[in-house]
Design a protein that fits this description.
Length: 223
């Protein structure tokens, strides 16, 4: 059952068995992952066909070193044409590609097991209370807009020390055609009920410009 279905050369019937198995299991895999990953519908459509795409490439490249190098270069170009994804999305694509390699080598049963078993494990682990730290779950993203004339280095340290149990600089960027700066900090409040007083004190130092406290997200989305 777990032996490769391929002979040499690959017969049409063997290829279509692999294609059917990879497409059906890829669809089931995307459906299971959609319960855990928050992403667009198009993402799941693409992930559902990734196993078949990879397996088809592996099937036709099998034994041809030159073609394998060319395909590797093509996949690297796809990476640089793609927008950065979340950790969940990257994991979903890697699992789909891994199973595609198994399908492409003719190991249909292994491909199905890799897809569906890892999808179930991924979803189950996401609901278990592990790898969660209560202190870190209360972290927030603070954004402070300041005029360009304000020297922001250490300008808010006294306020931070009074209201926050933890803070770190998460980046700086210019805004308003370069006339203002936006500071980002990862923060943890000592007392969440003092959030308004915290914002009011910051407003007196940033010229009453925009201040936002948001859920802490991935680093590429912070600024």
């Amino acid at each position: 059952m777990f032996d490769s279905i391929y002979s040499t050369p690959v017969a049409a019937s063997e290829f279509f068995i692999m294609a059917a198995a990879s497409i059906v299991s890829g669809f089931l895999y995307s459906w299971i992952m959609s319960f855990r990953i928050r992403s667009k519908r198009r993402f799941f459509i693409v992930v559902s066909i990734v196993p078949f795409i990879v397996s088809a490439v592996i099937t036709f490249v099998n034994g041809n070193i030159g073609a394998g190098v060319a395909v590797g270069g093509a996949f690297s170009l796809i990476r640089f044409r793609s927008a950065p994804g979340s950790a969940d999305e990257i994991a979903a694509i890697l699992i789909a590609m891994g199973s595609g390699i198994a399908f492409g080598m003719g190991y249909v049963a292994y491909g199905v097991v890799i897809l569906l078993a890892l999808a179930v494990i991924f979803v189950l682990l996401s609901f278990l209370p592990i790898f969660e730290h209560k202190a870190m779950s209360s972290d927030r993203l603070l954004r402070i807009t300041i005029p360009e004339s304000l020297e922001y280095s250490g300008a808010f340290d006294d306020t931070f020390k009074h209201y926050l149990s933890f803070y770190e600089n998460a980046g700086v960027k210019t805004t308003g055609m370069g006339s203002m700066f936006r500071l980002s900090f990862r923060i943890r409040m000592k007392d969440p009920s003092e959030e308004k007083a915290f914002i009011d004190e910051l407003r007196t130092k940033n010229g009453n410009l925009e201040i936002a406290i948001l859920p802490y997200t991935e680093p590429q989305n912070q600024l």
